[in-house]
Amino acid sequence: MSKKVVLSGARPTGALHIGNYLGAIKNWVKLQDEYDCFFFIADWHALTTDYEDTGSYKENISEVVMDLYAAGLEPDKCNIFLQSSLKEHAELHLLFSMITPLSWLERCPTYKDQLNQMDEKNIRTYGFLGYPCLQSADILIYKADYVPVGEDQLPHVEMTREIARRFNFLFGKVFPEPEPLLTEAKVLPGLDGRKMSKSYNNTIALKDRGDVLRKKVMSMITDPARIRKDDPGHPDVCAVFAYHKFFNKEEKEQIESDCKAGLIGCVGCKKNLYEKLAEVLKPIHERRDEIEANPDMVREIIARGNASAQVVISKTMADVRKAMKIDWE
Ligand code: SF4
User: Mind listing the pLDDT tens digit for each residue in 64-105?
Assistant: First the structure.
């Protein structure tokens, strides 16, 4: 029996951080063993919010591919491809934009949220409004069975299902309705305790190591009420402890009780975390060294993924054009 198809994407906005790794990529590494996975570099999606600044566009694509490889994705097990290399994604997006009611896009909760959050960017554009339509094309063009998402992305999967239903109703059944594969939310705070985000400049990149990593860990915000080493601490408000919970499972309970009893200092606690992180990230850094030492690998990985993706989407688009009776020739 053929494997079920999983589709997911990462925006190339620079090096991935460990929040991206825990929140999504670590899960992709598991999925590649179980499903027929299509993981794409969503470079057109990045343009919906960052179209004014494309100076690092190519470099960012390479960074993400190197990070995905470093994190454990195997080009022998999954397909890693570049969205903009496969023009059929744009074609299906265009066709979906003909049938998608404007009200569906305008009521999308993340649309309004992002308009408010990204006040400094001019994203009141046609492309940004239609972004869920492009996302639906990305998913449905592979006739994906599952889309791994966090809870906040569920409305987008629902919109994809609605667009599939509308297309099938108008032109006959072409698309299955994909199911969300809910990923347990693992949210790591940034160095300053706020949400980890490149725009806050508070991230730990997956590739950070040595002095860079150590300095970042040593700069992390701890319990602000703790002045002296023997003051009782509150690990629940401390960013360092949030990391111990994820990366230092064997010691987290001891650290929690020692902190509350004022038996350990924050400097030592951070040094301990740095060592733990360095150990956990070591295999990732070794794979990163491997791909950095082979400059052709990034292009080879993308070319291979593009070729596999092309086979699937050519067939889907032939079905779509036929169903819509626009298969001239
Ligand atoms: S001892 Fe560790 S857990 Fe407690 S406040 Fe300091 S850094 Fe945070």
Answer: 999 999 999 999 999 999 999 999 999 999 999 999 999 999
Q: Which two tokens stand for residue 32?
A: 């590649």
Residue 148: inside a domain: yes
Residue from 328, 4, 311, 316 nearest 167 by CA: 316
Q: What is the largest CA-CA distance in the chain?
A: 80
- The verdict on the CB of residue 239 being under 6 Å from ligand 1 is no
Split into its structural domains, the chain has a count of 2
- Write the CA distances from 222 to 17, 201, 236, 266, 312, integer angstroms: 20, 18, 10, 7, 50
Ligand 1 pocket mutation pick from 192, 219, 231, 241 by most atoms within 8 angstroms of CB:
241
What is the pTM for the complete model shown?
0.93
Q: Indicate whether 200 belongs to any domain.
A: no
Q: Is 309 in the pocket of ligand 1 (CB under 6 A)?
A: no
For a ligand 1 pocket test, name from 269, 272, 273, 275 the mutation site with the most ligand atoms within 8 angstroms of its C-beta. Answer: 269
